[in-house]
Amino acid sequence: MGKFKILLIKLIIIIGKNTLLGRGKFRKILIYLAEKIIFSNPKYNLKKPLFKLKYYDFYINFYGDKKSGTKLYFQRSENKELNFLRKEIKDNQLFIDIGAYIGMYSLNLANLNNKNKKIKVISIEPNYISFKRLSENFELLKKKNKYVKNKFFLENIAITNNNNLASIDMSENYANSKIIKKNKNNIYVKTKKLIDIVNKYKVKSIFCIKIDTEGYEYKILKNYFNNLKINLFPKYLIVEHNNSRRYSATDKLIKKHKYKICFATNSNYIYKFYNEKS
Comparing C-alpha atoms, which of 97, 166, 164 is closest to residue 134? Predict the structure, then answer.
């Protein structure tokens, strides 16, 4: 793809990031324009990144295929959650990202590592395409921030309530990949219980677990709460709800285990754990 077209795409993203045109109907127009430019070139290889893009205060690869979700690059989503975590996380704490996609949460928190602050991130993504891109973005981050090395751990698995193989549906955009009962394309992923990840990394305490698993949150948390001692309950939970009516059972389960809502956004509930010592 020519330099001029790439420049136009970058300009559209800058407009989407920094102006009111990055919201609502105007955002849809910007996405349409960007994708129109991308797909005007029939020789463009969708499996390769078009360019490196400044994303928050680090760089990631920009992919132009429609399943990646162009609006993600506008940095308009989940900023309240990210700002909260960046403010609250302290030295020697752990963040577990379940459903990391290309690393919006994981990379932001890992990038806080510096000479005086050590933050460990376990980043879990079942979609093998998204996982490859997450890995690429992590390599880019390592080049920028030498303190990230040995603090960032990647797992290409699905967290469920059992250890097995499961079919994964990648037919929609990659951010919404989900576990299903049957798969015509026979795309499978290893599944593990969250307790197995905790044991693998010899976790002693958890600052926050973020869960975005397209409806599997209840089963994951129920298994976790039932099999671990209270000292391994995370201080914070960020759980996707997307205004779903079916979320009420998950909300009741979390509150039953001494969590209270700190705040809510259009996508997530943010809970804080309150035990007798809180």
Answer: 97
Encode pLDDT of 211-227 as tens digits: 998 888 999 999 999 99
Q: Which helix (H) or strand (E) holds 174?
A: none
CB 136 within 8 A of CB 105: no
Identify residue 197 by its one-letter amino acid code: I
Q: Are 38 and 44 in contact (CB under 8 A)?
A: yes
Distance, CA of 218 to CA of 248 (rounded, Å): 10
Q: Which amino acid is at 66?
A: K
From the candidate CATH numbers 3.40.50.150, 3.40.50.12500, 1.10.645.10, 3.90.1150.10, the one assigned to the domain spanning 79-273: 3.40.50.150
CA gap 65, 49 in Å, rounded: 9
For residues 100 and 121, what is the distance between their CA atoms, to the nearest angstrom?
11
Write down the H helix ranges in 159-237. 194-200, 217-227
Instruction: For the chain, give every residue range classified as CATH 3.40.50.150.
Output: 79-273
pLDDT single digits (tens) 15-46: 999 999 988 899 999 999 998 998 887 777 87
